[in-house]
Amino acid sequence: MVRRYYELPSLTALAVFEASARHSSLKLAASELNVTPSAVSRQIKAIEEELGVQLFVRSGKGVTLTAEGEELYDVLANSFSRMSDTARSIKRRDKARNVKFACSDVFATMWLIPQMPDFWRRHPDIMVDHLISDDMRNFRRAEVELRIRFGPGAWSDETSEFLFDECVYPVCSPNFAARFEGATMADLPDLPLLDVNWVGPDWVGWEEALRRAGLPHAAFDGKRFGKFNVALQAAMADQGVVIGWHRIVGDLVQQGTLVRFTDLVIRSPGGYYLTWNSHRELSSATLILREWLRSIAKVTRNNPCPAATIE
């Protein structure tokens, strides 16, 4: 059997003794530690038997420390206090190097994550918890330190900072574009259209796009998808035309994976904003991530959207 290295009573028993001495009451110690008074008495008795001395003098009003008890309590109280300070420091340090960041699924997939390796190389000591969802109800404000949102730029209790604007235009696969070569904006209502059931109020779907373009059309009967990135996959698989958000699909268009279809370009009603809780002080790690997001957003902002044909 391996001997205890420091030849101390059990830490549980020492914690029970410290609480009893601090309260001068076994009953209050039991309440603090969420155990029964008899369990506290057993732990105290075990320490006294192990040390061979009496630590408390019991009376009707509680307990009083003996000289040996005072000596042990002074050392334990000082040690526990130092351990508590160290634990709090470690917790704060971990929290300070950890940032909870939120954004939509498609924004994370198509814009943020491809650029994150640069941040990880620069700041390997900062852990970013990515909270990713297309439904903003999944983000509890108390948990989120930074967030990228699309919209008008004004939200209750949030400080917002403009990152870059947005526009939308039809995109499809090169094969689909070749099959319908010569099609114009007026032909769009009669083509296979891919739409997205979006939870955000600022999302531009096909019905709104056709309405803003002044194109008469029947009730929408195209294919619908629950996520924008799935609709993009369908478009790349030659299944139809999807409304592409320039800041999301721009690289795919530049690479030739998708192509713009017709000359329709609609100015988006909102923009992308970096936001944070107006009532919370940002940690040093959060400030570092915010500065990095500002820098990469500037690169995006310096690449303007195509000129809108529909404002």
From TrEMBL:
InterPro entries assigned: LysR-type_TF_proteobact-type, LysR_HTH_N, LysR_subst-bd, WH-like_DNA-bd_sf, WH_DNA-bd_sf
An MF annotation (GO) of this entry: sequence-specific DNA binding
Full protein name: LysR family transcriptional regulator
SUPFAM superfamilies for the chain: Periplasmic binding protein-like II, Winged helix' DNA-binding domain
The keyword Ion transport is assigned to this record: no
Keywords (A to Z) from UniProt: DNA-binding, Plasmid, Transcription, Transcription regulation
UniProt superkingdom: Bacteria
Gene Ontology terms describing biological process: DNA-templated transcription
The family this protein is said to belong to: Belongs to the LysR transcriptional regulatory family.
Gene3D superfamilies for the chain: Periplasmic binding protein-like II (3.40.190.10), Winged helix-like DNA-binding domain superfamily/Winged helix DNA-binding domain (1.10.10.10)
Pfam family, one: LysR_substrate
